[in-house]
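Run log, item B.
One chain of 295 residues. Sequence copied directly from the ordering sheet:
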Amino acid sequence: MKNVKTLVFDMGGTKIASAMAEINGGNYKILDYKKIETPKKREEIVAKILELVEFYRGKYAFKKIGFAVAGQVNEKGDTIVCAPNIAALDDFALGKMIAKKTGLKVTLKNDVRAFACGENRFGRYKGYDNAVFIAVGTGVGGAIKLNGKFYFGKDNIAGEFGHMVIEACGERCKCGRKGCWERYVAGPGVEKMYEKTYGEKKGAKDIVFDAVRGEEKSRAIMEKASYYFAVGFANVANILDPEIAIIGGSMVKEKRLLRLAMPFIKNEVLPSARKVKVVNSSLGDDAFLLGAAVE
């Protein structure tokens, strides 16, 4: 079996990661990983992508580009329908444009769907027929596997867990609604919670870092966020009854955070749903990139 190389991008609200994914059956390598800040304007994003394509073309032979995008993607996999955390890419045929500019095959996936595909094929917990995949970063996204098959929904947007309302008349979300789950557990929401509580600003990464090391103020905020995570997670688990939930994303890279949430989760889910296995991603950021590479 030969190695297949695919240039892959993981595009979120704060960063764009890129790498060369080399896949040989069930084995893989992630080569030349790079990360840049997500530009604010559409033309700047496209220019950066094309610049990176040329960089990788100078080092590797490849015929395909795969994108994992934090937003809703159409069924054809060539257009971003809506991206609340990358507003410049709303209603934009990014795949078509990059394919035209480069002459390469280009496919787009929702980022958490890519995360799920990566974990499902290469991860330690592959093989479960009923699973949910949740990623917590700048926003919150999800993917669903039922009876051995991924469920995408009629319009290819199933799994938008982050826009489930968990606090009536709560914080305004970028999607336009109030009280969405991601406003209480994702990075920007946690930062806002800290600022409102203590009257000072602190970055989400620093809050997480300090919380797991016992700093009182940060730990109090992460315990509150963990409670809200459990509320939303219980809704997902009670509705879908999965065997396993695989949790990833930048906000849960520190694996001890999940321990903070587990007591809240046990209290919130129905007794029959307490058997669900809740685990950290086994692949980390690689899951998003690998999922962008595979069909």
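Observations after the first pass:
- The chain has a mean pLDDT of 93.
- The longest strand covers residues 27-37.
Flagged for discussion on Thursday.
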